Amino acid sequence: AVVSTQRKEDETLVTDSIEHHPHGYSIDFTSTTVQAPLVDELMQMREGELASFTTAEGERFSSVQPDIHSIEVEMLSHRGQDVSAKGDGSLIKSIQVEGMNRSKPFWTGKCRLLIQKGSNSGEEVQAVVLRLGDGDTYGVPPEIEQCAVTMTKGEECRLVTPSSNFTITLCSLERDLTEKEIYNLPSDELITKTELTKKSGNFNFQKGKLHLASLYYNRALRYLDNRNRKEEDSKQTNALEVACHLKAVVSTQSTGRTGRKRRYYSTY
Predict the structure, then answer these.
(1) Strand partners, 70
(2) Are 173 and 109 a contacting pair, CB within 8 Å?
(3) DSSP symbols for the chain
(4) pLDDT tens digits, residue range 153-192?
(5) For the whole model, what pTM was predicted?
(6) 65: closest CA among 100, 35, 29, 86?
(7) At what angle do helices 234-255 and 210-225 cross, to 10 degrees?
(8) What is the distance between the alpha carbons of residues 268 and 262, in angstroms, rounded to a whole number?
(9) Does residue 194 contact residue 247 with C-beta atoms inside 8 Å?
(10) Residue 108 backbone zone (phi > 0: left; psi -120 to 50: alpha; other: beta)
(11) Could you count the other beta carbons within 10 Å of the beta carbon of residue 178?
(12) What are the distances in angstroms from CA 8 to CA 52, 53, 67, 70, 179?
C-alpha cells in the first residue's frame, strides 16, 4: 500500500520498510520493522480513506524510530489482486511466496491450507484439510475459500478482508480434469464421473448444504459441457444435463447466490 505518514511535530516517519515516493510512502507489510498492530490497521483501510493512529503507552509504530507515537495516514492505493467474487475490491490478495506450478484448486476439490489470522508472526497457525465450498464445516470463512481457488500449490499470500486479514499457504490440492482430458474420456467413464458428482450434489442438497450442492451440480455440468458429443450417448448425457441444470438452478436460487450463466443445448 502507498501511504503518507505524518507526526504531530511534522517529522516524517521513515524506516527501512518504507520507500519514499513523490506522492507518499510505500510500506512493505511483510517487514518486521513496522509493528503488527499498525500493519493490521493499515490493511483494513480502503483507498482514499484518511485515519489517525496513536500508540498505547509502551507501544510503538516502528522498531527503527520508537519515539513516534502519533501519525496520520491517507491510503492512496493498494497493490494487490482483487479476488472478490463481485470484483468490488472487498478481498485483496498479495502474493508473498510464488507457487511451484500452475495447478489451482477447484470448488468441491480437496486442499490443505495453513491459515494465520493477523500480521503477528506469533499468532496461531491453523492447518485444515477441506473441500472448497464446505468451509463452514471446518470454521473456514468463505473469503478464505474465495482466495484459495486463485492460488497455486506452494503459494503463500496475504488476504485483506473487510473485517480482518490473513496469511494463507496452499500446501496441497486435488487436481481436476482439464477440458482436453474431459473431451478424451470414454463415454461410459464420463457418465460415471458425472453421475457420482451429481450424487454428491444430491447428498449435500438433502443435508441442507445448498451452496455446496450447487457447486457439485455445476461441476457435473462442466464435464458435460466439455464432452465429446456422440450420437450414441447423447440421450443419456442429455438427460443427465437436464437433471443437473435444474438442480443447480434450484439450489442456487435457494441460497440467494448468483449461478453461472450457460447456454443449454438439447438434442430432443
Answers:
(1) 54
(2) yes
(3) -EEE---TTSPPP--TTEEEETTEEEE-TT-SSB-HHHHHHHHH--TT-EEEEEPPTT--SBSS-TT--EEEEEEEE--SEE--TT-SSSSEEEEEE--SSS----TT-EEEEEEEESS-TTSPEEEEEEETT-HHHHT--HHHHHHHTT--TT-EEEEE-SS-EEEEEEEEEPPPPPHHHHHTS-HHHHHHHHHHHHHHHHHHHHTT-HHHHHHHHHHHHHHHHTS---GGGHHHHHHHHHHHHHHHHHHHHHHT------------
(4) 999 999 988 888 899 999 999 988 889 999 999 988 999 9
(5) 0.66
(6) 35
(7) 150
(8) 18
(9) no
(10) left
(11) 10
(12) 10, 11, 12, 6, 59
Short-list 222, 193, 2, 39, CA closest to 123: 39
Residue with cell 504531530: 8
**Measured in whole angstroms, how far is the alpha carbon of residue 259 from the centre of its chain?**
18
Residues 6+ apart with CB under 8 A from 47: 75, 76, 77, 78, 89
Tell me the pLDDT of the chain (268 aa) as tens digits.
Answer: 334 443 333 333 333 344 444 445 555 554 545 555 666 666 666 667 787 777 776 676 665 566 767 777 777 766 678 899 888 888 889 888 999 888 899 999 999 999 998 766 667 899 999 999 999 999 999 999 999 999 999 999 999 888 888 999 999 999 888 899 999 999 889 999 999 999 999 999 999 999 899 999 999 999 999 888 765 667 788 888 899 998 998 887 776 554 444 333 322 2
